[in-house]
């Protein structure tokens, strides 16, 4: 068996460490950008959008309603209806 010198062992350890750091950074980047959305039609012109991030640990629930007079409305936790006509809205697939 041939033994490695001190310099070869240092570079093996350095390359292994760099690869592990890059792998960990990639996994963190993937989990930070992971999102899933559920769209539920509640009836009566209402839609609930649930956005989950960080593997379902954080959830944001938005409830929307269609009104012939006001167009689309957002319903907050206190059942107050806020018109969306003056706000930007992005839908992504």
UniProtKB/TrEMBL annotation:
Keywords assigned? Membrane, Transmembrane, Transmembrane helix
This chain's protein is named AsmA family protein
Q: Where are the transmembrane segments?
A: 6-32
What organism, scientifically named, is this protein from? Novilysobacter luteus
């Amino acid at each position: 068996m041939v033994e490695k010198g001190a310099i070869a062992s240092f570079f093996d350890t350095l390359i292994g460490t760099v690869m592990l750091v890059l792998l960990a950074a990639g996994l963190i980047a993937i989990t930070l950008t992971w999102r899933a959305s559920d769209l539920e039609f509640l009836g009566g012109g209402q839609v609930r959008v649930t956005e989950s991030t960080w593997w379902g640990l954080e959830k944001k629930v938005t409830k929307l309603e269609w009104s012939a007079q006001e167009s689309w409305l957002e319903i907050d936790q206190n059942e107050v209806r806020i018109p969306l006509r003056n706000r930007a809205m992005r839908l992504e697939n």
